[in-house]
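Holo prediction — flavin-adenine dinucleotide.
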Amino acid sequence: MAKYSAFAIARQAIGWHEGWERAWRSPQPKSRYKVVIVGAGGHGLATAYYLAKNHGITDVAVVEKGWLGGGNTGRNTTIIRSNYLQDSSAAIYELARGLYEDLSQKLNFNIMFSPRGVLMLGQTEHEMRAWARTWHANRCNGIESELVTPAQGKKIVPMINLDGPRYPVLGGLWQPRGGTARHDAVAWGYARAASDLGVDIIQQCEVTAIDRNGPGGAVSAIRTTRGEIACDKLCIVVAGHSGVLAEMAGFRLPVECVALQALVSEPVKPMIDCVVMANTVHGYLSQSDKGELVIGGGADGFNNYTQRGSFQHIEETVRALIETFPPVSRLRQLRQWGGIVDMTGDRSPIIGKTPVEGIYINCGWGTGGFKAIPGSGWCTAATIAQGAPDAVAAPFGLERFSEGRMIDESIAAAVAH
Ligand code: FAD
Ligand code: PYC
């Protein structure tokens, strides 16, 4: 695949930009692959890319029922940070954040990583205690974060109203190397690089059944809307549909699905140059490169599979935000949407083997998996290649729920559940 560069742009400009090749191949599915990954979201595509890049396994297909990046990966609010409490979380989220730093160069695709800083406000004594504890834990794990005073918070985000009527700002946790990246570009960049290494990405191909005709009931094939595909190993990476796929394979997951919604305002001149989260009032915002305020709130309070927004959420979220960020009240809202997020009880992901021989799983990222995509793909690929959990992935195995070994990240997950 031709390299993207300033020279390539100049060369294409001479030919009226008519010579660009497609970013990834769209092959017909083969009858058999060594590894099949279900779900072309960021996690599935990154897993495929690192299988090929780090482990030389290129006989891989990624099958996607819709279009790649059309699930939560293309619907999220793009916040990247690694300021988690538990050691195992710090390891995987910081691995991911570090990989994001030069991902554009590695993939030869501009993912627009912008380490503009993430400020998580403390608006109750309880929340401030949680941030203080997280700050100490971050320092022990070598993660750069800082506990800030209200005045420092105001300096970082001048539009903050520190003296909100219900929840005054008492301080916050600041991660200067947190930030954002362009969500679609992350999916597209991994897809292009994986395709270039020989991975087949097969869109419009829904998995409808999983066959277990291998020794001892091991996986043997998937049935799809584009025919049967045999495989040695299968990895399920379908976020909000994880329970559906697990049921096809004959096991259950401790995952519940809810809709998480977001909205954007009309584009305006620069008014905020970092990401700010106000978790007590249930709202967060940043500004996109187009000038829109990217705004999100809490998750639905009931389980559902609705991949769309609702009026009640806009009202709740905007009402909460204007208390702390009064200028938001002057903005018209442009559009809203929703994604189906897969929530575990401890708000940590599930990565590793399943009760079915040959089937691996990567799910449970809930409201916070965009930031983890590179690290998750890295260690899921290692787990599949080795047939045993990679060191970073190991704590996140499914067995932790029966062993009572939870990785409680309900505060770091930040979004209200
Ligand atoms: P997805 O991107 O959802 O990909 C799964 C794919 O599987 C989908 O494309 C789907 O079509 C496919 N699939 C499902 N069933 C089948 C089938 N039967 N056959 C074939 N394919 C199938 N995280 C952050 O870190 N920061 C944020 O700021 C953030 N904000 C968010 C805001 C919103 C509104 C939402 C909804 C989520 C947010 N998240 C955020 C969470 C993040 O988006 C997800 O954790 C992450 O994108 C999950 O990626 P994935 O690859 O696992 O899933
Ligand atoms: O995980 O930081 C996060 C997040 C913010 C909004 C949704 N998820």
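READOUT: The CA atoms of residues 348 and 412 lie 10 Å apart.
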